[in-house]
Amino acid sequence: IEVLVAEFEEWSAQSSDVSVECSIVLLDSKAAEAGCDLLFLLGGEHEFRLTCPRDYPQHEEKFFCQSRSLNLWSSALNEYMLDSAHPQQLNEILTKAVQLHKGKSSRNTQADDDDDDAEDNEDEDDVDYEDEMDMADGQYDEVN
User: Fold this and answer.
1) pTM for the full model?
2) Contact 41, 27 (CB under 8 A)
């Protein structure tokens, strides 16, 4: 456990330029049946558990991630870890976790912008439709 905590602290110090939305904080660490469980907080709001291999850092087994609030993100991180041809280090996994979350955040921001644009267009369409309805009723007053 001490090796993992020390590696996290080193990674965290080197990643100090990461935005708050993508920051990772170590909340807890404990021995587990499969190795060691590290509990993290991602972006100040999402907890995730990383199960680390028993013989870390000289290990052959894979890490495993679980998160209740970020299912797609944790699935993508698990896929990345499973697809790796070499035994991974904690810092590699944490860096990938941040990259995946940054990608998710930027996609959400873009999706929110697209939703706002769509709502604006719907509002304009509503006004046009109301204008047409008033004209069809013989009323030529413009509706605001």
Assistant:
1) 0.70
2) yes
